[in-house]
Each structure stands twice: as structure tokens, then as C-alpha cells.
Amino acid sequence: MNVVIVDDEPLARERLRRMVETFPGYSVIGEIGNARDALAEVGDLKPDAVLLDVHMPGVDGLEIAGELSRNELPPAVIFVTAHSEHALSAHNSACAGYLLKPVRRDDLAAALMRARQPSRAQFAALADQVDIGTASGYVSARTREGIERVAIRDIMYFWADHKYTSVFHLHGELLIEQSLAQLEQSLAETFVRVHRKALVARAHVTGLKYNDDGSAALTIAHHHHTVPVSRRRLADVRALLADELTNRDSVQ
């Protein structure tokens, strides 16, 4: 995870940098001492997280955090300050953490771990970046390694999971915020709704099987799980599958 430190005190920045770099998988890619430069420099560096002092000359750190939340891909924000009176405002800003100076290593570690989880602002920004109009598009999600993009052609199926949607693709799984209804509308030419919770890529379907209880499920190429087909969609799915397999045979 890439981290930027924004603090007008050089010694505070140095102490934070040393602590951050003791954690495996974390790197400090920038130190910013002037609050007025923070927005532009963070925008250029595109870190995963920002350690941000609340009280700096000229600009309030809470204001900077608000502006950062409007970035194309907003970083997670961890407030670091000697002024505990800002705690309520900081927590209300949905930050990943609020740390009082002198910062304790355990508290910093916990805040950085929270910063790995996508915030609402990050999910919203990722949703705006999704390009699903054609088979050459992609979906994006924040993972432990950073931002991951998956080509639509590599997606086997989408599965509704509470208020989010799981994306099962050739290389693993992602979580996005878009609903199945939104995805179905954009991907109608290449995906088919087979269940209230499932949207499947036609190109990755290899067959239709029936379970002992009479329920039906699709088998998926390169995937050891099957995807259930609802009874009310079964006839449409069989027709679409027959057309798809016929088209593949004609191409071969």
C-alpha cells in the first residue's frame, strides 16, 4: 500500500515515515509539508492512503480531506493531530482513522489496516470508472494490492451479495457496488440473467445440468462451481444456451 504523509512539522513526518516503513507491504511515496500543495501533490501521486494532520497553517486538514474525497479515485484518509477537539469532526468525515500525537505504533497499524477496506467514497469513484458498454470494457475494485481492473471478457458471472456484487473472473474474485440490474442493462448482449442473484457470461457457459432435486444449474468453463438457474428463467436459459452452442459450432 502506498502512503503519503501531509504534515507541516518535519520531525512528525519523519517519525511517521519510519513507523510506516516498518510494516511489510507499506511504502511512503511522498511527504508534503505545505497544506496548500497537498491537493495537487496527492492528486499526482495517487496514494492508497494519506496520513493527514488536521491543524496546519492556512488550510484545515478536514477541508483537505473533503476535497480529496472528490478525487477520481479518493485515497483513504487517516487523521494525525495533537488536537483531540477535532476528533468528532474527523470521525464524522468517515476517515479510516484518527490518531493523536505522539502516534503509537499499534494504533497506526490498526488504522492502516482499516485503510485497506474501500470507503463509500472509493466505491462510488470506482463505480464511476467502470466501463461496461462493450466486451472490451472492464470493472475496477480496490483490493489489498491496490486497484485491480478485470476485463469484461474475463468475467464468468456476477453474483448479488447483499448490497454489493461479487465478480467471479478467470483470475479470482472482486467486489463491486453496482447492482445486477445495472450490469444486466449494460451487458445485455453478452450476459444473461439466470437467477435473481446471478448474471452469467454466455461465452463462459459450457452446459446445463439438473440436480437430484430437479433444480437446474449452469456449468462454467474454468470454474469448479455451478450457477443456479431459477425455474421461471429456465426455459429462456435453455433457448439462449441452445443458440449459443449452435453459434459456437458454426464458427468452428
Structural commentary:
It is a single chain. This protein has a 5-stranded parallel beta sheet with strand order 2-1-3-4-5, sandwiched between helices. A 5-stranded antiparallel beta sheet has the order 10-9-8-12-11, sandwiched between helices. A 3-stranded antiparallel beta sheet has the order 13-14-15, with helices on one face. It has 2 domains: 2-117, Rossmann fold (3-Layer(aba) Sandwich); 132-251, LytTr DNA-binding domain (OB fold (Dihydrolipoamide Acetyltransferase, E2P)), CATH 2.40.50.1020. Residues 87-93 have low confidence and may be disordered. 33% of the residues are buried. The chain contains 8 helices and 15 strands. The chain has 252 residues and is α/β, with parallel strands linked by helices. The chain has helices spanning 10-20, 35-45, 61-68, 87-92, 105-115, 120-129, 180-186, 234-251; strands at residues 2-6, 27-32, 49-53, 76-81, 97-100, 138-143, 146-151, 155-161, 164-169, 172-176, 191-195, 198-201, 205-210, 216-220, 226-229. Helices cover 33% and strands 32% of the residues.
Chart the SSEs and their pairings.
Elements: E1 2-6, H1 10-20, E2 27-32, H2 35-45, E3 49-53, H3 61-68, E4 76-81, H4 87-92, E5 97-100, H5 105-115, H6 120-129, E6 138-143, E7 146-151, E8 155-161, E9 164-169, E10 172-176, H7 180-186, E11 191-195, E12 198-201, E13 205-210, E14 216-220, E15 226-229, H8 234-251
Parallel strand pairs: 1-2, 1-3, 3-4, 4-5
Antiparallel strand pairs: 6-7, 8-9, 8-12, 9-10, 11-12, 13-14, 14-15
